[in-house]
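fyi for ur records
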Amino acid sequence: MSENGDKVEFVDLLGQSVRAHTSCQRFQPGDTIVREGDAGSSAFILLSGSCEVTVHDDVLGMVSPGDLFGDIACLEGGTRTATIKATSPSDVLEIAGDALRVELRRSPALLDRFLRLLAQRVRDISRRETAARSEHHQLRRVLEDLQPKLDRFKAIPSLSMEVRCQPLSFASGDYYDVLELSPNRVLFAIGDVMGHGASTTPIYAMVRSQLHEFASAERRPHELLNHIHQHLRHHGHPNVFMTLTLLMLDLDSRIADFAVGGPPCPLVYTRGSCRPLTDRVGWTLGYPFEGIAFESETVPLTQGDTLLFYTDGLSDVARGPDRDREVLGVARLSAIFSGLCASSSNGIADGVFRGVQEFRGSWPVEDDATALIIRVL
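which gave:
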């Protein structure tokens, strides 16, 4: 934070009128001088010692003798943007914000020094934001690389698949997958990790790796759910849970074997009507309860049947602050899906999103959303 090469210290630029509104305090190593998020109106100058600057517990730099800090909250009367802790015995001069603002209007030299410091702050923030955006883009690309490439399944003449995924941020807690277990068996998966953003990524990756390692044509969906549930309990964060639906389709018999771990349940459009695939929705994965078990069910599918696997970022869309009355819900989502299936239109996943967006209107997006469409040809 120091202005290298500038011989005049901040404290030397303070006039007598502002000095009357200062006080000096001594801090020991580990003492917090200002805390991120706290209200504050004073600014500070480090007279001796050294201090550490952290934001969200990440160390961003050091304060050296002669440096001014706390200036942003001083200017706007807002909250502190960083935490400053002493790392050695430190003498700190506190300046009343009102007095400093008056002095800035009175002293061109102090104002010039202050503006150059703010310009340096802006450059530092810009560099950090650029680095963060780069990391976010890299994480997004990694997650996209983990998603299945549906083009490779176009060679299956009895199936049509499409997907649309809309992350809330750079990382999504929504997980979908398609695995070819044998020449005539395909496994479909859709899940939703509790939460948003980067914190969901480790669970996403953990579940994907376990499913890819453990899934086989001989194992039923409930066995896979049981395995992943136990893995999350023993190796995942204790307060992170995940919904996961697995469906294994035999391409020859068109028999679907499936298990649902937590809502929402997939929808199936068959013979001109739409319904949930089952009314037996099991537990969400990861809950620390003993005796949780999952069940597999079977359902025959016929030509023209269409499945909608989706996350609650679609069904729980709101168009107002009253979530009890202003939520899309499964019934409305089913109506949107049924209309698209009845019209035999292509791009059902995109159509579902359009219908949901029309319901939402200008109300903001609040969750990741994914739709995976499977049609039996």
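Confidence is low (pLDDT under 50) at residues 1-7. thats all i got for now
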